[in-house]
Design brief:
206 residues; alpha/beta; eight-stranded mixed beta sheet; 6 helices; binds guanosine-5'-triphosphate; binds magnesium ion
Length: 206
């Protein structure tokens, strides 16, 4: 049974289909980042996720496509025990914190530790300091996030789901780091699944 499971994961990776997970404290902005990336939308009153939600998005990167199968997990503590179901088979993860909330940064570090112990060994992990539009309420300095990410071998970027800052970029940077995705020296990305009338540009990162 275990071998069959690994075979499925291998096959999916080799088809450039990558299970992907978002982890982080309640209210950090996981669902908002996914909604921005997949649909180009933002909701001021995004409902708290119950259990987990599934989305997919395909990126066309030069001569290859990458399909992200995204599990947006719930940050509420009562759902913590479900998280391994989503991260164990994942090729990549974004751990999200809210730059206006230092508790969420502490929580993000706990997720990093948990993935280091129990995650998929080859997993590509990014750390996102979200709500970067709320500069006046900032409680976590960019340098703190950057230093922590560097110490732990994570890709780091500050994002805003509200203004769309660095949202496509973080997914693109992860896609570049996935096995069997070899972007050309002058890379560009197109979001194949996003409707043409989405609020944000569906291309980035040239
Ligand atoms: P759980 O599902 O409860 O784990 O939370 P979550 O991490 O999915 O957070 P969610 O996306 O639901 O966002 C929580 C609140 O923060 C919502 O009211 C969003 O509108 C708001 N929010 C999310 N991202 C941003 C952002 O980049 N900037 C600002 N200003 N608000 C944001
Ligand atoms: Mg959510």
């Amino acid at each position: 049974m275990i071998n069959v499971f690994y075979l499925i994961i291998e096959t999916r990776f080799s088809d450039n289909q990558f299970p992907f997970v978002l982890l982080g404290d309640v209210g950090a902005g996981k669902s908002s980042l996914v909604l921005r990336f997949v649909k180009g939308q933002f909701l001021e009153f995004q409902e708290s996720t119950i259990g987990a939600a599934f989305f997919s998005q395909t990126l066309a990167m030069n001569d290859t496509t990458v399909k992200f199968e995204i599990w947006d997990t719930a940050g509420q503590e009562r759902y913590h025990s479900l998280a391994p179901m989503y991260y164990r088979g994942a090729a990549a993860a974004i751990i999200v914190y809210d730059i206006t909330n230092s508790v969420s940064f502490t929580r993000a570090k706990k997720w990093v530790q948990e993935l280091q112990v129990q995650g998929n060994p080859g997993m590509v992990v990014a750390l996102a300091g979200n709500k970067a539009d709320l500069l006046e309420q900032r409680r976590v300095n960019t340098e703190e996030g950057q230093a922590y990410a560097q110490e732990n071998g994570l890709f780091f970027i500050e994002t805003s789901a509200k203004t769309a800052t660095n949202v496509n970029e973080i997914f693109y940077e992860i896609a570049k780091r996935l096995p069997s995705v070899q972007p050309l020296p002058n890379p560009g990305m197109v979001l194949v699944d996003r409707p043409a009338h989405g609020a944000a540009s569906a291309t980035c990162c040239s």
